[in-house]
Design a protein that fits this description.
Number of helices: 5
Radius of gyration: 16 Å
Structural class: mainly alpha
Strand content: under 5%
């Protein structure tokens, strides 16, 4: 079973959330390339998100669809979230990039809440495959 097939077996809200996550972590950051002051934030967010996604696919190949799949997000998005917070609050950052970064940041933080909760559950023994 592939990762997309395993995701399809989950409740519908999981698929909807993952679609939003794709938009918020990969598509929306590209709009930050419009402004010089936010270009680095856009490139960094897409690059880090690609690394995180690659880690999820790799971990899926090693362990299957388990609660530990959020670990790559935790490792790369936690520092990114802190950095984006500082970028958003930087003087000279135009209003629209601030708003976009806020949406990206909210998306990443919500994902991290799920990921940290799943990591704790995995560490406490919930290791059975989810699909």
């Amino acid at each position: 079973m592939t990762l997309p097939e395993a995701i399809e077996l989950q409740p519908a809200w999981v698929g909807l959330w993952l679609n939003w996550l794709f938009f918020g972590a990969f598509i929306l950051p590209l709009s930050l390339l419009i402004w010089r002051q936010s270009r680095l934030a856009g490139v960094a967010t897409v690059a880090v998100s690609l690394i995180g996604a690659g880690g999820v696919f790799w971990l899926f190949g090693q362990l299957g669809y388990v609660k530990l799949l959020g670990l790559p997000h935790i490792l790369v998005w936690t520092p990114l979230a802190v950095w984006l917070w500082h970028q958003m609050r930087r003087s000279g950052m135009p209003v629209w990039p601030r708003r976009i970064i806020l949406v990206i940041l909210a998306t990443i933080v919500i994902s991290l809440v799920f990921d940290y909760a799943d990591l704790v559950r995995y560490l406490l023994g919930e290791r059975a495959p989810l699909a």
